[in-house]
Amino acid sequence: MSSKIVHIESPQQFSSLLSSSRIVVTDFYADWCGPCKAIAPFYEQLANSLSRPNHITFTKVNTDNQRDIAQTYNITAMPTFMVFKNGRETQRIRGADPKALDAAVKSLASEAESSSADGSSSSSGTWIGASLPRGYSDITDSVDLLNLDFLNVDSEAGNARAVFNTAQPSAISKSSSAAGKDWIESDTDEQLMMYMPFQSSLKVHSLHITSFPTEGDDDVVRPRTLKLYTNKSNVLSFDEAESIPSTQDITLQESDWDAKTGTARVDLRFVKFQNVTSLVIFVAEGEGEGEKTRIDRIRIIGETGEKRAMGKLEKIGDEQGE
């Protein structure tokens, strides 16, 4: 097998590659599949000639060993080839079709070469820290940035808009942000209250939350316990959030955080997030004993609906949050 083909051993590894490489080509196969074996040498040849670090990466996923990944992308036939650009599926080829595979991959390879020549990279587009579920997209641009309202944010860190920055977090690139700190931290304790109105009604499938605790500072930690509230007309006070029912409570474990991208994918009870005009995220607890919770990025994953007229949000009855 070619050393340029990355064999995927876990969902976390796959998620990291989708974030770090601008284009990812994936061969979903099975050891018992005859057509998979027949096209494997051709796929290896493509990988040898077209692989480019951080620009185009060829991977293989054994569907018997990585059932979670196969289920996430609804793989029902082998082989299936998928092409991802900036973490999003752009093409799917079912069956051992060398001509279709060759055309798809070479077209993207040419695009990657062109992008490299003009100095762009995956970090110049919208950065995401985890893989996208099939059929859904990054809809973070639906957030109404002008009307954000965050409570208990340290003034010496970034402002509320920092977490919606489309660029790769400076904690990964090890570079300074031109706009200052591109993350937020809580102030007096580990709690944060984040009110996010949307420009249209959304169906929210999941959240990507990125957090890089500051090296050498045990007081800065990742969020652990989250409470989500939908369709509120304004930010909640901390006392109010503790006294009313949440739409969903989430407890993040250490294993939920991807080591490379610092991102946890938070899957939601989709039926409860079907017509969402605003979202409040209450970080009730951070990890361990730290007193400052840090968040570098938040991504909203789902589907957009009809645009609404901007202005004061209509308050929806609390029964939707029960």
Automatic annotation (TrEMBL):
Listed InterPro entries: Galactose-bd-like_sf (IPR008979), PITH_dom (IPR010400), PITH_dom_sf (IPR037047), Thioredoxin (IPR005746), Thioredoxin-like_sf (IPR036249), Thioredoxin_CS (IPR017937), Thioredoxin_domain (IPR013766)
Pfam families under this entry?
PITH, Thioredoxin
Among its keywords, does the record have Disulfide bond?
A: yes
Cite the CDD domains for this sequence.
TRX_family
The Thioredoxin domain covers 1-110
PITH domain location is 128-320
Alphabetic keyword roster:
Disulfide bond
What the entry lists under PANTHER family is as follows: THIOREDOXIN-LIKE PROTEIN 1
Q: Which family does it belong to?
A: Belongs to the thioredoxin family.
Matching entries from NCBIfam families are given as:
thioredoxin (TIGR01068)
This chain belongs to the protein called DUF1000-domain-containing protein
Q: Which organism is it from?
A: Aureobasidium pullulans
